Amino acid sequence: MYQNAFTKLELPEMAIVLDRVNEKLGGIEFDPVDAVILAQNISFYPGYRLLEIADHTVMPSVKRYAVYSDDEFFIINFSNEPIYKFNVDLPINLNKENVSDYVRFFFTYVKGKHGRFILTENVDDIPWKEDPPPSARKALGDLIIPITIEDHDEEGSFFIRCCMCFKDSLFKTRVKIQKNGLVSMSEEELLVEDMPVLDDVFAQ
């Protein structure tokens, strides 16, 4: 999961940010007094921050995400289209130090047509209905591999081996990340199926 350290914005900066982004949120408007904005730098988008904008004073709470700088921003809509467009326009800056973070970012904030691929780096990344017993946790932990960069070709593409959870199955896959940020998967190897996981729900 993409879980780098966030910092909380103070009220004056929040007011400036919300004055810009509210009109792009499709009818939702955050009040600086009630909202909380957490920000973190994005290594592959130099000069930009990932914003998590939330209002916990309403039930259910409302949360939105944006990639933001003082010059421009885009709202994350959980499709790959705005990310791919931004990758070309900026353009994206991928290297061996940050490509793993890009993979985490991509699979956290993109949901496919048939469901969400959850990058699984440890047992707790799996959306369990209830905690598995210790023996099951250990068995799964032995199957899960860390994100590993396997190769980097002359065209600037990176090849990463990692584990994914899709619906109730855990599998190993090879992810190709092109220089422009396009992502594709191949060589899927099923590890476990019929796991007791939550339905594929991704709050937006």
List keywords for this structure.
204 residues
Write down the overall geometry.
globular
Q: Unreliable segments (pLDDT under 50, ≥5 consecutive)? A: none
The radius of gyration computed from the alpha-carbon positions, rounded to a whole number of angstroms, is 18 Å
Number of domains: 2
The helix-strand sequence is: EHEEEEHHEHEEEE
What is the count of DSSP helices, taking H or I runs of 4+ residues? 4
The oligomerization state is single chain
Folded structure, characterized:
Helix content is 20%, strand content 30%. It has 204 residues and is α+β, with helices and mostly antiparallel strands. The protein has two domains: 7-76; 99-192, no CATH class. The strands form two sheets. A five-stranded antiparallel β-sheet has the order 1-2-3-4-5, with no helix packed on it. Strands 6, 7, 8, 9 and 10 form a five-stranded antiparallel β-sheet that branches. The radius of gyration is 18 Å and the shape is globular. The mean pLDDT is 93.
